[in-house]
Design goal:
This protein is mainly beta and 257 residues long. 8% of the residues lie in helices and 35% in strands. Strand 5 and strand 6 form a beta hairpin. The structure holds 2,5-dihydroxybenzoic acid and fe (ii) ion.
């Protein structure tokens, strides 16, 4: 029962790391499960985390006093030391993808965690609050408060991501990429966690590339395969795979964008 645990989550523990609960060297990902009426206890921590919802309608994540509904394709940030809790107001089980840089924080001896109180009703009785100040791209409201180290916008609606992916010009290999940014700086949404949405072309593999980061990929729609470090993995909707640091990778979709 969720009353007995911090979070009800299936953590993707990569067996390469033995007893340590890690998905890559610096990231951890999971599927979080909430039954109808469940409230996951509010808390905050120095780790940076995100959720990506594909079938979480009826759930909400409350972040620093703002209610962030979880519609299909929404990205929700829970930046370092921002209070957050989750609630399932629907009549069915809800599952979403989440990821956090807990292994990085552990390696730095910098993982601090403060529990809150699930029974504190005021925590849950909130609306979108200041989130409405950040929902118009390219506009910043006078006097709106923004932290220096993370985006002041916590909810990135899937509807906007899909629209922009459709409008974006394909790169040389046909893939389209949208980066989630902090609207104040134009940089990554959090200083230690960067998020992108990629739409693959309906023909051909993407150009081989490698980067100086570890990545966790969630397949939001469709199917295909990726070659990661010389091995090819087939994937379909809701599969998760990683691209370890400095590993060559190429992606290919089957049957449509
Ligand atoms: O639900 O607050 O899987 O902060 C990892 C970090 C879940 C959460 C995770 C988190 C959470
Ligand atoms: Fe958390």
């Amino acid at each position: 029962p969720v009353e007995d645990v911090e979070r009800r989550a299936l953590i993707m523990a990569n067996p390469d790391f033995g007893d340590k609960t890690m998905t890559t060297n610096n990231l951890l990902s999971a599927f979080t499960v909430l039954e109808p009426g469940d409230r996951a206890v509010p808390h905050r921590h120095t780790a940076a985390a995100i959720r990506f919802s594909t079938r979480a309608e009826g759930a909400a994540t409350i972040v620093n006093g703002r209610r962030c509904d979880m519609l299909p394709g929404d990205l929700i940030l829970t930046p370092p030391m921002c209070w957050h809790g989750h609630i399932n107001d629907s009549d069915h089980r809800i599952i979403w993808f989440d990821a956090a840089n807990i292994p990085l924080m552990n390696a730095l001896d910098a993982h601090f965690f403060e529990p809150g109180n699930r029974e504190d009703n005021a925590f849950w009785q909130v609306d979108e609050g200041d989130e409405r100040l950040w929902d118009a791209a390219g506009l910043v409201s006078g006097g709106a408060e923004a932290a220096v180290s993370h985006s002041p916008k916590y909810r990135y609606p899937g509807e906007a991501t899909r629209r922009l992916l459709g409008a974006s010009a394909p790169g040389p290999d046909g893939s389209r990429t949208v980066r989630y940014v902090n609207p104040v700086t134009g940089g990554s949404v959090m200083t230690t966690l960067d998020c992108h949405a990629v739409r693959l072309p309906n023909e051909g593999a993407t150009r081989l590339k490698r980067g100086t980061w570890n990545a966790i990929c969630l397949v939001v729609e469709g199917e295909g395969r990726s070659t990661v470090g010389g091995e090819t993995f087939e994937w379909s909707r809701h599969d998760v795979f990683t691209i370890p640091h400095w590993t060559w990778v190429s992606h290919e979709a089957d049957g449509g964008d």
